[in-house]
Amino acid sequence: MTIAQLTWDYSDPRTGTSMPAPFFFDKGVFDEEKAKIFMNCWHVVGHVSEFAKPGDFVVQEIFEQSVVVMAGRDGEINAFHNVCRHRGNRLIEDRRGNKVGVIRCMYHSWCYNQDGSLRAAPRTENLDDFDKKEWGLRHVRLEIFASFVFITLDQNAAPVAEIAKGADVEMRRFLPDLDNLELSSESDVVVDANWKVIQENSIEGYHFDLSGPVHKDLAALINFEGYTLTPYGDWWTYIGPPNKGATQAYGVPLDGSTWQTDWFFNIGIFPNTTFYSFPYTDMVGTFIMIPLTPEKSLLRFGYYTPKGRETPPVTKAAIEWMNTQLGPEDIELNVTNQKGLHSLGFGSGKYLIDPARPHQSENLVHHFHTLCYKAIRE
Ligand code: FES
Ligand SMILES: [Fe+2]
What we know:
The chain is of the alpha+beta class. The chain contains 7 helices and 19 strands. It is 22% helix and 27% strand. Bound molecules: FE2/S2 (inorganic) cluster and fe (ii) ion. FE2/S2 (inorganic) cluster (FES) binds at residues 84, 86-87, 89, 105, 107-110.
């Protein structure tokens, strides 16, 4: 059987089996996901505060595509393809920075304004029918949602506010300083696992108090019985109320701390964007699973804190703890999971969906798998 013939019956998550293993390593599936999910979806680039000054930019890669998001002189944020219109040279190699004045191509020095329009192209003045207005950088669609900047390569994609309708209301409930954040740090980690293996791990409450010791530390900050995992079409939440008895978190006393929320708050937007906050932390995290190959992904952790406010020791400790403890503990599971999926002894598994234990349910895993399957097969 070829992968194109391999189907999956997702209709009954409680009695059926989970998405078959080849969907997590097959090259044909990966190519379909690229074409039908990632070339059409919205990609989060950063917070609006990263584009405060003219020339501030962030470069976002989507497979071999590279897009520059930049603030113009008028404060407007634009997105355009990161390629010179002359002979196709890549323009900017940095992930983020500021371009004062112009974007200059290193090859023949065509210069573009911060809004992408062509300002100067040496020695073109005698060319017949060369109109600079026609040779600006090609624009990419950009929208701002919940104070974060999103781009898509699909001219026909539904607006992000429609796809994630209601998600911003939930975010503002838990993240009161959403409009007033600044980037504190960003870290990228390459993981030997399919992007869906990483997503699955983050959207279920089953492994929480059963896997490694760091997970148990997190579970202790939450009133775990009240953990809820809720699908809303193309977005979902997984939220845990606080353990009000906590006196310390991430190894630091809570005394005198401020926080966005004392809850464990997470919101995912299909396919690969997550916003979250850890209990008792004054931060908004982004967690993006960027597919590189069928079995390799780039995990991008962004940490945003309220602008102009001292970051409390608990929040600093939480960021360090995520980067050095919780993240690695999950990544180890991602890697061992990816290896196991190839086994002749597996094939397809079983979702734990038990109405008596909703807080430990794998209902969101089934929901996410279904969205992925429908996107490539229906
Ligand atoms: S390729 Fe950019 S100026 Fe020639
Ligand atoms: Fe985990």
